[in-house]
Amino acid sequence: xxxxxxxxxxxxxxxxxxxxxxxxxxxxxxxxxxxxxxxxxxxxxxxxxxxxxxxxxxxxxxxxxxxxxxxxxxxxxxxxxxxxxxxxxxxxxxxxxxxxxxxxxxxxxxxxxxxxxxxxxxxxxxxxxxxxxxxxxxxxxxxxxxxxxxxxxxxxxxxxxxxxxxxxxxxxxxxxxxxxxxxxxxxxxxxxxxxxxxxxxxxxxxxxxxxxxxxxxxxxxxxxxxxxxxxxxxxxxxxxxxxxxxxxxxxxxxxxxxxxxxxxxxxxxxxxxxxxxxxxxxxxxxxxxxxxxxxxxxxxxxxxxxxxxxxxxxxxxxxxxxxxxx
Amino acid sequence: xxxxxxxxxxxxxxxxxxxxxxxxxxxxxxxxxxxxxxxxxxxxxxxxxxxxxxxxxxxxxxxxxxxxxxxxxxxxxxxxxxxxxxxxxxxxxxxxxxxxxxxxxxxxxxxxxxxxxxxxxxxxxxxxxxxxxxxxxxxxxxxxxxxxxxxxxxxxxxxxxxxxxxxxxxxxxxxxxxxxxxxxxxxxxxxxxxxxxxxxxxxxxxxxxxxxxxxxxxxxxxxxxxxxxxxxxxxxxxxxxxxxxxxxxxxxxxxxxxxxxxxxxxxxxxxxxxxxxxxxxxxxxxxxxxxxxxxxxxxxxxxxxxxxxxxxxxxxxxxxxxxxxxxxxxxxxxxxx
Lengths: 326, 337
Description:
The complex is a heterodimer.
Chain A: H1 2-5, E1 10-19, E2 33-43, E3 48-52, H2 59-66, E4 74-79, E5 82-83, H3 89-96, E6 99-102, H4 116-126, H5 134-144, H6 161-173, E7 179-183, H7 191-208, E8 211-216, H8 219-225, E9 228-233, E10 236-242, H9 243-248, H10 253-261, E11 311-314, E12 317-319
Parallel strand pairs in A: 3-8, 3-9, 6-7, 7-8
Antiparallel strand pairs in A: 1-2, 1-4, 4-5, 9-10, 10-12, 11-12
Chain B: H1 2-7, E1 10-23, E2 26-39, E3 43-47, H2 54-61, E4 69-79, E5 85-87, H3 93-99, E6 104-107, H4 121-132, H5 137-150, H6 156-159, H7 169-180, E7 187-191, H8 199-216, E8 219-224, H9 227-233, E9 236-241, E10 244-250, H10 251-256, H11 261-269, H12 311-315, E11 321-324, E12 327-329
Parallel strand pairs in B: 3-8, 3-9, 6-7, 7-8
Antiparallel strand pairs in B: 1-2, 1-4, 4-5, 9-10, 10-12, 11-12
């Protein structure tokens, strides 16, 4: 019983991230941009959780708030039982070592003026690895991500996109994390390279027992890769559940629209259903009630009243929509 | 339908097109002997990864190549509205200006690179129309608003009075399409027009392009790196690798019976959004890196990554072979696939 409480590696509760609007000379401070609103979820050890949504849905803000790269407005983020929000200095550094991030653009986490080896060694130094052992450890990490030891002497710009992402993964693995946020890690890569990187992430996840929060917009990748999936719309989770359950039996009209919009895998299966109309709304011009109702084919008058709460529709499957049987 | 398209005169025919880049390290060909046809009312997808030469091909048709790139060989045969066939590779800039934006429309990945941020969208489209049409300002503006309606922009008259930055990404892409269609082109070139968009907006834009093509009957040459987009929009597919077309076929045929080991590996490596989740989640992997056109292998350009490669593949570059009617492949071993 006691064990089950501590089973979550990461526990996010009621997390909100608001950005203050910029005050200008002629206009008072505008209302804050609510990028993430009241998001709760957990990630178990070894679990791969997918996060999908359109641009402006808040997926990157949510990930950055969990990593404490931006500050949350309210809520709680517990990693291995330790509350991260409010933690400072040394204590924060210690906890953070257990979590790493891989960005779409590996340049975001690699110092362009340092060689691949120096970039990777930084994490080893942080761990207190003795200087004498570092070159061998760097070479070992490079091998683990499918690069030769010679790559240690090259600078980030000397690699192809796929190789650079491998260096980014080696850098993330250097500190022995238990949890990695992968923010669109293959979106910028060539088709033939995407599968290489996805397989590499799976290898490392299995070998090291890592948990992953996988952010993506490509639903075929999410379906293939993730154990569970969360769908974000304007900063709120509108549906979450086991991947297969969500894809086969999507309960939120938005999830269904996203699945319908994904390009077909074969011309014979071209989408004939009508595409979702309109653009993803902006978090700046938020409306009351269900945020999706302006684009929803099933909206009724009640959708205007309150923000729909997440409710369970099956084991581990919840949806924030008041309509049923649609 | 097949017989009609087989006999129809192509609006665009590339014949052995080669584009050379002169660099300090020596010259290399980013496009090397590309031959293809685009027929009116049909969409040809040019699909490839980075360095495949797909975007350079489109830029050469528009004659937008900048130094150090130049057309080194081949013909770009374009049949305009008057039915005359001209080789765009040999036209001067003055004549090209009469064709660009008039008989040939172009849409890019990033609309902001082709829209003027200081001009309201209605005025920009009207300006583009008046460049090629003897219309009054008022007539051109009315036509611009009509075009915005045609690309399914709601409240077109009001939108026409807005600046590009006031529009969403999907809306800007629609404005750019309206501008490309302003003079009823016979050929539309599209360079990754949906790559920067959300999937929901991508689906809208692809549907719009299909319906506009049905209404207007133009030929479309659509460059993309995304095989899902190819499955959605193409009639014919040309697969590029290392500056060459390595396989071409009607879209259904290409997805059903891909013959080149590269095409087969690519299709196998894609996760299928319609396939159930499997516990064994490894994807089929194509090993190695995308070929760099500056350092080409002596034989087949795909040979270093190919699981079927034999000695002959290394010895000399393979020629294009006809595997079936309208299905061509540049591989020695295609029949063993």
